[in-house]
Amino acid sequence: MKKLNLLLISKNKQGFADLEQEMAESGPHRILHCSKPEEVYDAIAAARVDGVIVDEEVEGGTGLDFIREFTPRHPFINCALVSSLYPHEFHEATEGFGIFMQIPPRPGRKEAENIGAHLAKIC
After folding, report:
1. Residue 69: which H helix or E strand, with range?
2. Nearest to 43 by CA among 21, 70, 72
3. Which helix (H) or strand (E) holds 65?
4. DSSP labels for 28-64?
5. What pTM does this model have?
């Protein structure tokens, strides 16, 4: 499997500890944590990024608000979003933003496998 470079945008890094551990063990993939959305743009300028994992709430707003701003600037970087919405509500709220996956709060092994498999196909 290709090594993936992922950005994780969250105010709460601990909520992603299981996901990060699983991604590191299965790859080994590189995960860079950004606590502020503006850090993402610096990280993208510095290195290749295959995917962005965005928490439901980020500094300054919601994860979806961030993706609405991010996608037009970087339309070819894949995004996953943490959301507690029901799947049909998530689809309605995010349609057209190119989000490849809804991730539940406190993601773990299953989500790591799904993210890795999905991105390996398209990156």
Report:
1. helix 63-73
2. 70
3. helix 63-73
4. PPEEEEESSHHHHHHHHHHS---EEEE-SEETTEEHH
5. 0.91
**How large is the greatest C-alpha to C-alpha distance in the chain, in angstroms?**
36
Task: Tell me the pLDDT band of 50, cut-offs 50, 70 and 90.
Answer: very high
Tokens of 115: 């993210």
Which backbone phi and psi does 109 adopt, to 5 degrees? Answer: -60, -50
Domains assigned to the chain:
5-122 (3.40.50.2300)
Q: Which residues contact 58 (CB under 8 A, 6 or more apart)?
A: 9, 10, 11, 36, 37, 65, 66
The residue assigned the tokens 């503006």 is: 38
pLDDT band for position 1 (50/70/90)? Answer: low
| Contacts of 114 by beta carbon, 8 Å cutoff, 6+ apart | 101
